[in-house]
Amino acid sequence: MKVRMSGDDRRELVLAAATRAFSRGGYAGTSTDAVAKEAGVSQPYVVRIFGTKLALFLEVLERSCDRIREAFEAVLAEAPFDPDDDDDWSRLGLAYTELLRDRDLLMVMMHGFSAGDVDEIARCSRQGMSRIFATVRATGCPDERAQEFIAQGMLLNVMLSMRATEHLDEDADLAALTTCAFGDALPFVLSPIS
Q1: Which pLDDT value is given to residue 184?
Q2: For residues 30 and 22, is the Cβ–Cβ distance under 8 A?
Q3: Closest Cα partner for 70 from 48, 92, 42, 54?
Q4: Which residue has the higher pLDDT, 194 or 78?
Q5: End-to-end alpha-carbon separation of the chain, Å?
Q6: CA distance 189 to 187
Q7: What are 53-67's pLDDT values in tens digits?
Q8: H/E/C letters for each residue in the chain?
Q9: Radius of gyration of the chain (CA)
Q10: How buried is residue 3: exposed, middle or buried, by Cβ count under 10 Å (0-12/13-18/19+)?
């Protein structure tokens, strides 16, 4: 007997499929038909749920940014955070490193940040970055420390989006940069997701 999915479950199925599809093709290179095929539903069904490709992409991008913010909020909620304690920054960094293993999340953000010529996407990207920055600032650190932390995360995003971690043996300088950027987290990022 086949169990019928609820509307919320089908919506989540389409959002997960859209994340995968947009991570590969970006906003401009992904159609609602490609999302529908990825989800195993009809294209009119995708449009009926989300209205437009833009609305769907915005929701996927916002959810990606929210996942990062929520991961940081969880770290801040689990124990007191001392902005002068390197161990506390390591806890925050580890939460981000765990998210980096989700290539779809990473690539959706990269595509969103680079699609600034679409006003709504640029606005969503700015809002997502602003919320992430506000969460890091909630540690009580100076703005410069929050900016450095986010800049390091963006460097990791760029390194992963160009698949630098998969090609360490091809270029000694790139390998040195990658190793330096990821530090102790490199083996974790390289390990398969279980």
Answers
A1: 83
A2: yes
A3: 92
A4: 78
A5: 30
A6: 6
A7: 999 999 999 999 999
A8: CCCCCCHHHHHHHHHHHHHHHHHHHCCCCCCHHHHHHHHCCCHHHHHHHHCCHHHHHHHHHHHHHHHHHHHHHHHHHHCCCCCCCHHHHHHHHHHHHHHHCCHHHHHHHHHHHHCCCCHHHHHHHHHHHHHHHHHHHCCCCCHHHHHHHHHHHHHHHHHHHCCHHHCCCCCHHHHHHHHHHHHHHHHHHHCCCC
A9: 18
A10: exposed
> What angle (nearest 5°) sits at the alpha carbon of residue 54, between those of residues 35 and 44?
45
Model pLDDT for residues 159-174, shown as the tens digit of each residue: 999 999 989 999 999 9
Residue 187 token pair: 């083996």
